[in-house]
Amino acid sequence: MAVHLDLGRHGEQLAKDFLIHHGYRILEQNWRYGRAELDLIAAIDKKIIFVEVKTRRSADHGEPEDFVNWKKEKQLEFASLAYIERLNHQGEIRFDIIAIIFENKDLYQINHIQDAFWPS
Q1: Which of 3, 15, 61, 112 is deepest in the core (most CB within 10 A)?
Q2: What's the pTM?
Q3: Residue 101 CB partners (closer than 8 Å, separation 6+)
């Protein structure tokens, strides 16, 4: 498997563990709708949280969260609407980003950005 895919999967697992540790319930991981994928879908306080996880080896080329552009936001919106409809969820939703930067194999920083964006 490609090294960048291993890093991404490791980042998603760290993000999942982080959310669980902070009281979130994980509903789905890598949920797909068409060509769009939601990395993590979590719930807390009757709110559904759609989480995009971005993992990088460094911030030399920008912060990980900077790589969630309008095109990615549209894909997330598309998939999230399908998920909400499937569950017939009538409550609040939120779009978060969890940005992870590895300094080395065992040392990393996690930045959980709540309400990171709202697709139009």
Answers
A1: 15
A2: 0.90
A3: 55, 56, 57, 58, 59, 63, 64, 108, 109, 111
